[in-house]
Amino acid sequence: MKSTKKKQKARLSDGGRIKSESQYSDPVFKQISLANGTINRMKKEEIKEKLAELKLDTRGVKEVLSKRLKHVYKKQKLTAAKVKCHDDIMSCDFLLVIDFEATCERDNENYQHEIIEFPIVLIDTTKLKVVEEFHAFCKPTFHPKLSTFCTELTGITQRMVDRAKEFPDILNEAEMWMAKHHLMDKTSNMAILTDGPWDMGRFMYTQCRMLQMPFPRWARKWVNIRKHYANFYGIKKMNLGSMLNNLGMAFEGQQHKGIDDARNIARIAIRLLQDGSDLHINERLFARKLQLLALQSPYKDNKLPTIGPVTKKDCLDDSWSSDEAADDSSSDEGDENSGSDLGDDSLGVEVVAHIVLVEGDSKIKSKQSAEDVVNEYSQDDIDDLLSYYELQKNH
Q: The whole model's pTM is what?
């Protein structure tokens, strides 16, 4: 499953939109704009009639149907005009949908979760279908006995985890499975896809720190489908069940069972791709300390790592995704003098810049100017960063 695609090259113009040198100069873009305006004025039933005429899916709320119709008209007009648009920066040939299940209690305050189910659903974005799956349960070591609440929520029984291998062995098996499908190759064009930031930013991080394991490089950045879904369809962020409902779909399987959740997330991802979303990587860990996890003392607190957005500009830049960038090799100088008491998991430079810009926090010093921040990130990104900052402070 080696990638044959080449990365698209473009530049970031004013307003944060991706444009090529001559893009949007063709008259076809005015036609597309007029068509979009017409669709915006249509009622839901009118949109459904148009989609039915085109033999397309008519399920979903109006925002979903509107986006679907706009996408098909745009494709038709661009094809007829023989114009190639570089708005879409979809750069992944394969998406690995991961949705961990972990030990839990009814009251999870200061609770250290351990991964007990490790599912992967592999999507081929060219074929727009699921092509492979990996699935295994993990035997917990810090909380070997599952709570009644955990079993009732996930359907995972004590017998299932007692018969399973421990997390390091399952992680190794998962990586061998990925390697078998050439997903670990340097030329592989794949990305992790999750429903929110928690699978990698909380569960994988906590697991690796508890076991003093290196954090996997492939898990340091991912596609947050919840954020893509909200931005693409122009609606508020919502949970898995609500995303399916808005698409006119029903959940298949058992909710909170990792493999079933992953399969349903994959269904949403395929629908987004069909409707025109690029599903590029949009979140990552600021990973300066991640390579030191194996050397740190076992996990004794509930502090989370810093998570930040990946912009479209980042996706078009080869340097941000390199190992050096992922490790955030910038010196720790300044962290000790920043006045921030965020500890070892101090905020990355980019996040600090946003907080300086928006909150005016005089105690945090940034190496990145406010002007750079405005040019690189949207207001939505800044709002997300502030949310993560509050989450960090509260843990």
A: 0.75
